[in-house]
Specification:
Blueprint: E1 18-20, E2 32-33, E3 47-51, H1 57-63, E4 67-75, H2 80-84, E5 91-97, E6 100-106, E7 111-113, E8 126-131, H3 135-139, H4 142-150, E9 154-159, H5 161-167, E10 175-178, H6 188-198, E11 204-207, E12 218-219, H7 229-235, H8 240-247, H9 263-280, E13 284-289, H10 302-311, E14 316-321, H11 324-330, E15 338-340, H12 347-353, E16 359-363, H13 366-371, E17 378-381, E18 397-399, E19 413-414, H14 432-435, H15 439-463
Parallel strand pairs: 1-2, 1-3, 3-4, 5-7, 8-9, 8-11, 9-10, 12-19, 13-14, 13-16, 14-15, 16-17, 17-18
Antiparallel strand pairs: 4-6, 5-6
Length: about 475
């Protein structure tokens, strides 16, 4: 039987749908408990995770075909002969996790693929960083990861699926522990118990859950969300990145994101931006992130800014990035000055583009943090945050609404419903803080950055 006390060891390997044919409690939240005889009700290549108490050679022959590529069979008891029987028919990988054997089905020619070799500890102290959240949340952890890497720690990073997209292959992380969030309990007492079990094997544990959204931002739906503006302004004025070091008990200030890119990612980004330069006939390329996850992370005046760029025939081209919805929001009306990259790039590619463009314009979403990890100047369109929250550099421009135009500015709240945030004066579909940023001011900020870039290029050319 799979001991319930050991379930936490398996979370990193489980993916939906999970079928548990073992005795005792279900191995995770959302697992379907079935009898062994009921396993054959499922279609082949349908399941991502199967848990069984013990597996004979005959059972393995019946059960393994039910797994999709990448799916796993988990058991505390299986014979070497049973595993060996797979070699002529399937491609698979055998992984050991404590007392468990995990057989992962792979695509390709039959045979056993060697299991990945964990990075050795080599006497290093072990730190566990725990952070579940959105893309921007993970990017804010990068300076802390760099710190522990520079200090010689063995780093385990426990993340959600978003973290896997960003950190897969990052050489600073010795053990990327990815778990599907829908398979673990969101009840805080049960999560605390899970983390206490994880903590046993580490010298230091840094909890970064709600490090920003909770400590420095009030989230819609929580009691703290209704705190008075004055209370929020006092308690939420800290710097977002500095606060990660506070959580770790480190008195370190002023660090910027440290985002790892491979040489091939940087080269791809360079070529992609050069392609856009040629396509648009513009020498200065701006990455413009269209919107983020919250209602106030979208700037309605972007179309007016693009119109000014188009009418004035400025030497500025735009790469628009976002998810699939952004593809239709951006449309095709600005093709002469804009390359619609929404839904074109994977997240690692979108991050890499920040290393190759000449400037970044972004509302308060992940791109604001990504931009700080590279050289290009940024125009940040602030909504819920105050300048004290942001680690801006000399070349960056932080734009916020005037208090007279937006009395609720710097609310330090995350709004997820349209009714929770004041509507714009001119654009009623927008939030007041975004609507109150004049497109002409954003355009002039772009001109300022473009002018400084031209002076820099001229100075470099003269020096040569």
């Amino acid at each position: 039987m799979i001991n319930a006390e050991m379930h936490y060891k398996l979370y990193r390997h489980l993916r939906s749908p999970v079928v548990d044919a073992g005795e005792g409690d279900a191995v995770c939240k959302g697992a379907l408990k079935v009898a062994l005889s009921q396993l054959l009700w499922f279609k082949e290549r349908h399941l991502k995770s199967i848990c069984m108490d013990e597996v004979s050679e005959q059972q393995l022959a019946l059960v393994f075909p039910l797994l999709a590529d990448g799916g796993v069979l988990i058991t505390p008891s299986i014979t070497a002969a049973a595993v060996k029987s797979l070699r002529k028919t399937y491609r698979y990988q055998r992984i050991t996790e404590g007392s468990f054997t995990i057989l992962k089905r792979l695509s390709g020619a039959p045979g056993e693929l060697p299991a990945p070799v964990p990075k050795p500890v080599d006497g290093r102290k072990k730190v566990l960083l725990i952070r579940y959240g959105a893309i921007g949340d993970h990017l804010m952890v990068t300076p802390l990861i760099q710190h522990y890497h520079d200090e010689g720690w063995h780093i385990t990073y426990n993340v959600s699926e978003n973290g896997e997209k960003i950190f897969q292959g990052d050489p600073r992380i010795d053990d990327l522990m990815v778990q599907q969030m829908s398979l673990i309990s969101t009840v805080r007492t049960e999560m605390d118990e899970y983390w206490r079990k994880l903590e046993k094997d580490y010298d230091k544990v840094v909890h970064l859950i709600e490090c920003v959204e909770g400590d420095l931002l009030r989230v819609e739906g929580t009691p703290q969300y209704k705190d008075k503006w004055e209370k929020r302004a006092i308690e939420c004025s800290g710097n977002y990145i500095d606060h990660h070091f506070d959580r770790a008990g480190l008195d370190i200030k002023g660090r910027l994101p440290s985002i790892w890119l491979s040489d091939s990612e940087r080269e791809w980004a360079r070529k992609e931006v050069e392609m856009v330069r040629k396509k648009l006939g513009k020498s200065f390329i701006v990455l413009w992130n269209i919107f983020g996850s919250s209602w106030h992370k979208a700037y309605p005046g972007m179309f007016e800014v693009w119109s000014l760029l188009k009418i004035n025939r400025d030497d500025i081209g735009v790469i628009a990035v976002s998810d699939k919805m952004g593809k239709y929001v951006v449309g095709n009306d600005f093709n002469s000055i804009l390359f619609n990259g929404c839904d074109r790039y994977k997240i690692r590619q979108s991050i890499a583009l920040h290393s190759a463009v000449d400037a970044v314009v972004t509302p308060e979403t992940w791109s604001m943090t990504a931009a700080l990890g590279f050289d290009a100047p940024m125009i940040a369109l602030l909504s819920h945050s105050s300048p004290s929250n942001i680690s801006a550099r000399p070349q960056d421009i932080l734009m916020e609404a005037k208090l007279s135009d937006c009395p609720c500015k710097n609310c330090h709240q995350l709004h997820y419903s349209r009714t929770s945030c004041a509507r714009g004066t001119y654009n009623r579909d927008a939030t007041l803080c975004m609507d109150a940023l004049p497109p002409g001011d954003v355009y002039q900020s772009l001109m300022k950055i473009r002018s400084a870039h031209g002076d820099h290029v001229t100075a470099v050319a003269s020096a040569l």
